[in-house]
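hiii, so i know i said id send this last week but things got crazy w the move. better late than never?? heres the sequnce for the chain we talked about at the cafe, plus the structure i predicted for it. fair warning i was half asleep when i ran it
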Amino acid sequence: MSEAYTQEPAGHPGLPRWLEPIRGAAMTITADDLTRFVPPEGASTRRGAVLVLFGESHLGPDLLLTERAHDMRSHPGQVAFPGGSVDPEDPTLEHCALREAEEETGLDPRGVDVFAQLPELWLPPSNFAVTPVLGWWRAPSEVSAVDPREVHAVLRVPIDELLDPEHRVSVRHPSGWVGPGFLIGDDKDLVLWGFTAGIIARLFDYVGWTRPWDSDRVRDLPPHMLAARHEADGSDPLPDTNPRER
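okay and structure toks below
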């Protein structure tokens, strides 16, 4: 295994104090606390991992997110954690999450301390069993969209902005599905919704960070974020984003 993907074990003293509630939550949280979708017993699923990377900048604690290219055949413009399918050469889910993050954003994995994993979650439309891998960005590196055909932009979103009630909305899909969402970006014109927003919202709920917000404030999903292939074949695009397809 590459030394770049070999991290110190959880519980290392380098974790900032503000991140300790997240590390503690990862020890007790269950899949049911995060979603109603879990892999069926004995089911044959595709496995994937996403990197939930917590960093800190002059704006305070933040999360690393990517915005998919707007002309992708599925989930165009979707905001998501970096991540993707487990490859045969991935010895661990941690390795998969870090490798995918490096391929998508140019992240240097040597600056990341992985400190926990969340329970495996299931994306029924794509039959992906996805494990969120939690990391602390101990030594931030330059990041940007490595391949514009796949990633439109790489974002560092301050956690304080995610917690701001003015940036919280309920997102409505044309199918009638409604779920938690966040308005992000410099002009708050990007909609974070679905699987990624659900993990963030419910994890923040679990650790008691969520501030009261108006769940009746509904924002329709922007048309450019609707996947053409789902509209064409009638399949269900929810609960949101697939790990990056090859």
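btw Residues 194-207 form the longest helix (14 residues). thought thatd interest u
miss u guys!!
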